[in-house]
């Protein structure tokens, strides 16, 4: 009895509708250590936060955290881009603190869709993009999931296997059914293009396919230009709606236009599509929660209706999005010199990661490790899907104080010239002994 909460107590007594009874029982419940919340089970820990906790609890001075997907410099320190500091200086003082409209800062949305779809994109010129500022990439995905639940009834969301784990939660919480398509081939540590096309060809017309625009998380495996064309063609034939999650534009190749190439391919093929943009990684605005959610429509009239419904979804959820990050992005993308400086700084981050990939592979090969490590340099973006087993991941943590997710995903952003030797040696040990 003591373990059951007040809510179940009330249900048993059949008095749960009465505020008077509830208040009385709550008061007396307090003295009996009962609570309204005694029946609430503890939710499972987020796997990534669990890694950070284990990392923090470890006392080895040379411990390495390769779990979290946030950029670090070669001294393992978080980075604020110089261009962001400059934009902050420019907006300081002039910045008002009023609410933004429900759809966010219009100038920010206009600049964001140009970044994703191209300066001269027909869909923009023709007024066919409905866009709202979102709470970063997660918020964009959540708005899309809610939009699907209301306006694309019966449509399933097709999610790649594997994917960023939160994708499953987001569409589940919105009540949208998910289907899974093959993506990664463990034998080659590359793309399973055949499996992907085979699975998507079983989707129903009207279903939505979630595609990582670039730097697929967690595998670091992206389709080639030709493979994207095949995917686009099949989806057009099957009448499937593409939804691009673009959390790493610029972070994959170092070139924002190249990283948007998959989206541009789909646009050239005449798809209407959806897009989630995040400035967390590519501008380092993680905690500012700055993103944009857009849907390409067939006409300006449709744009007006769709955008009004996006706002109708956002309003009861969070009322309106945060101001600071949107002002920073607007300042940077709206000024040619700052935009160029940003391009250079994103390239600097992407290049550091590409260099670490080359070093890690070289060190493993120099150690004479018998496994193939070509995928380390062939994969792209923040993550390397190393191919090591969960048991080997556990050994890395226990014996070497090196922490990563149990699927063997290495956040390359945590690898530096100072720790790459130790990482290679530890990987060599756990994969050979
Ligand atoms: C594929 C993908 N989508 C979305 C996100 C969400 O990022 P945020 O909400 O911080 O912009 C992430 C972050 O790791 C991601 O990897």
Question: Which tags fit this structure?
Answer:
7-stranded mixed β-sheet; 433 residues; Aspartate Aminotransferase, domain 1; aminotransferase; two-stranded parallel ribbon; L-aspartate:2-oxoglutarate aminotransferase activity; Aspartate Aminotransferase, domain 2; Aminotransferase_I/II_large; binds pyridoxal-5'-phosphate; 18 helices; alpha/beta; PyrdxlP-dep_Trfase_small
What would a concise description of this structure say?
It is an enzyme of class 2 (transferase). With 433 residues, the protein is of the alpha/beta class.
Q: What report would you give on this structure?
A:
It comes from Coccomyxa subellipsoidea (strain C-169). Keywords: Aminotransferase, Pyridoxal phosphate, Transferase. Its cofactor is pyridoxal 5'-phosphate. Belongs to the class-I pyridoxal-phosphate-dependent aminotransferase family. Homodimer. This protein is of the alpha/beta class and 433 residues long. The protein folds into three domains: 41 residues, no CATH class; 127 residues, Aspartate Aminotransferase, domain 1 (Alpha-Beta Complex), CATH 3.90.1150; 255 residues, Type I PLP-dependent aspartate aminotransferase-like (Major domain) (Aspartate Aminotransferase, domain 2, 3-Layer(aba) Sandwich), CATH 3.40.640.10. The protein is 47% helix and 12% strand. It has 18 helices and 13 strands. A seven-stranded mixed sheet has the order 2-10-9-8-7-3-4, with helices on both faces. A two-stranded parallel ribbon has the order 1-12. Strands 5-6 form a two-stranded antiparallel ribbon. α8 links the parallel β3 and β4. α4 packs antiparallel against α15. The longest helix is centred in the last third of the chain and has 31 residues. It is globular and about 65 Å long. About 3% of the residues have low confidence. Pyridoxal-5'-phosphate binds next to α7. The site of pyridoxal-5'-phosphate (PLP) has 12 residues, from α7.
């Amino acid at each position: 009895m003591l373990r059951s909460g007040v809510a179940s107590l009330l249900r048993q007594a059949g008095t749960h509708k009465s505020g008077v009874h509830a208040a009385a029982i709550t008061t007396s419940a307090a003295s009996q250590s009962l609570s309204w919340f005694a029946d609430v089970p503890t939710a499972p820990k987020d796997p990534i936060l669990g890694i950070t906790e284990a990392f923090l609890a470890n006392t080895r001075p040379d411990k390495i955290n390769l779990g979290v997907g946030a950029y670090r410099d070669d001294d393992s320190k978080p980075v604020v881009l110089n261009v962001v500091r400059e934009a902050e200086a420019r907006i300081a003082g002039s910045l008002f603190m009023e609410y933004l409209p429900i759809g966010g800062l219009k100038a920010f949305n206009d600049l964001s869709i140009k970044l994703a779809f191209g300066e001269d994109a027909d869909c923009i010129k023709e007024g066919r993009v409905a866009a709202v500022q979102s709470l970063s990439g997660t918020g964009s995905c959540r708005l899309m999931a809610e939009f699907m639940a209301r306006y694309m009834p019966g449509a399933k969301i097709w999610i790649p296997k594997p994917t960023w784990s939160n994708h499953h939660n987001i569409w589940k919480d919105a009540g949208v059914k998910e289907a899974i398509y093959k993506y990664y081939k463990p034998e080659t540590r590359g793309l399973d293009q055949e499996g992907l096309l085979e699975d998507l060809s079983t989707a129903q017309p009207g279903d939505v396919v979630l595609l990582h625009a670039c730097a697929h998380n967690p595998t670091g495996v992206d389709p080639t230009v030709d493979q994207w064309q095949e995917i686009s063609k099949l989806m057009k034939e099957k009448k499937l709606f593409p939804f691009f999650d673009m959390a790493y534009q610029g972070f994959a190749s170092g070139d924002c236009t190249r990283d948007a190439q998959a989206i541009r391919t789909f646009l050239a093929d005449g798809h209407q599509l959806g897009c989630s943009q995040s400035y967390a990684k590519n501008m380092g605005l993680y905690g500012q929660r700055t993103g944009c959610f857009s849907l390409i429509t067939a006409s300006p009239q449709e744009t007006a209706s769709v955008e009004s419904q996006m706002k109708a979804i956002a309003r009861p959820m969070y009322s309106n999005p945060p101001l600071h990050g949107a002002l920073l992005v607007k300042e940077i993308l709206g000024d040619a010199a700052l935009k160029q400086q940003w391009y250079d700084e994103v390239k600097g981050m992407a290049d550091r990661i590409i260099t670490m990939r080359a070093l890690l592979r070289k060190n493993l090969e120099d150690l004479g490790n018998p496994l193939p490590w070509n995928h380390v340099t062939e994969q792209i973006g923040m993550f390397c899907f190393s191919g090591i087993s969960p048991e080997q991941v556990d050994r890395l943590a226990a014996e070497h104080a090196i922490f990563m997710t149990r699927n063997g995903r290495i956040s390359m952003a945590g690898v530096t010239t100072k720790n790459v030797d130790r990482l290679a040696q530890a990987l060599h040990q756990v994969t050979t002994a």
